[in-house]
């Protein structure tokens, strides 16, 4: 019996040390050396070196003075990330989209962009299309008593394009930029 048990236990211990200890330590070490910013969560800091969020995970912003991100089925919680799984024929989806459209509606600007009404697959997408960010410029400029052109310029400066995929704007970067604008005081 020990001739069968001893090699089995030895193999379990050896594989546990290799796959559960050595391999994760090597991967973590390589990531910390080669990609330290990404390995540590792609954190975004404000001017006072305080962590304000991550470039990779959306967070909720409410109020007329902020750019609003895409809706999140999991309330922007990383543990509950995911889509709502509501089918297009589900009345609850139509109700939610209708309520979001009414809340995001800006007078004389046409239909609300789909980015502001639909959730992403993870519910944590930190990016908007430039059209969805542009749609919010008039509301934010009015709430902050800023020239519309200053907010529009900030959106243009924060628009990123990659080799593949459409251009995107990071909502957290936009909102941090709003606080750095010279007259970025919220209207009373």
From TrEMBL:
Q: How does it sit in the membrane?
A: Single-pass membrane protein
Pfam families attached here? KdpC
Q: Where in the cell is it found?
A: Cell membrane
Q: Where is it chiefly localized? A: membrane
Key word Transport present in the record?
yes
Q: Which domain of life is it from?
A: Bacteria
InterPro entries, per database record: KdpC
Keywords assigned: ATP-binding, Cell membrane, Ion transport, Membrane, Nucleotide-binding, Potassium, Potassium transport, Transmembrane, Transmembrane helix, Transport
State if Cell membrane is listed as a keyword.
yes
Q: Which family does it belong to?
A: Belongs to the KdpC family.
The family database entries (HAMAP family) matched by this protein are listed as: KdpC
Q: What does this protein do?
A: Part of the high-affinity ATP-driven potassium transport (or Kdp) system, which catalyzes the hydrolysis of ATP coupled with the electrogenic transport of potassium into the cytoplasm. This subunit acts as a catalytic chaperone that increases the ATP-binding affinity of the ATP-hydrolyzing subunit KdpB by the formation of a transient KdpB/KdpC/ATP ternary complex.
How does the record describe its quaternary structure? The system is composed of three essential subunits: KdpA, KdpB and KdpC.
Name the UniProt record assigns to this protein: Potassium-transporting ATPase KdpC subunit
Q: What is the lineage of its organism?
A: Bacteria, Pseudomonadati, Pseudomonadota, Gammaproteobacteria, Pseudomonadales
């Amino acid at each position: 019996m020990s001739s069968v048990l001893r090699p089995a236990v030895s193999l379990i211990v050896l594989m546990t040390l290799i796959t559960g200890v050595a391999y994760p330590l090597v991967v973590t070490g390589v990531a910390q050396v080669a990609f330290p910013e990404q390995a540590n969560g792609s954190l975004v800091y404000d001017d006072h070196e305080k962590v304000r969020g991550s470039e990779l995970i959306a967070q909720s912003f409410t109020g007329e003075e902020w750019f609003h991100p895409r809706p999140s089925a999991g309330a922007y919680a990383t543990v509950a990330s995911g889509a709502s799984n509501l089918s297009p024929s589900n009345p609850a989806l139509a109700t939610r989209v209708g309520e979001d459209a009414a809340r995001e509606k800006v007078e004389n600007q046409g239909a609300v962009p789909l980015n502001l009404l639909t959730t992403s697959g993870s519910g944590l997408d930190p990016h908007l299309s430039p059209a969805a960010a542009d749609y919010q410029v008039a509301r934010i400029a009015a709430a902050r008593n800023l020239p519309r052109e200053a907010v529009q310029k900030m959106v243009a400066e924060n628009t990123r394009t990659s080799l593949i995929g459409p251009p995107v704007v990071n909502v957290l970067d936009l909102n941090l930029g709003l606080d750095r604008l010279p007259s970025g005081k919220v209207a009373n």
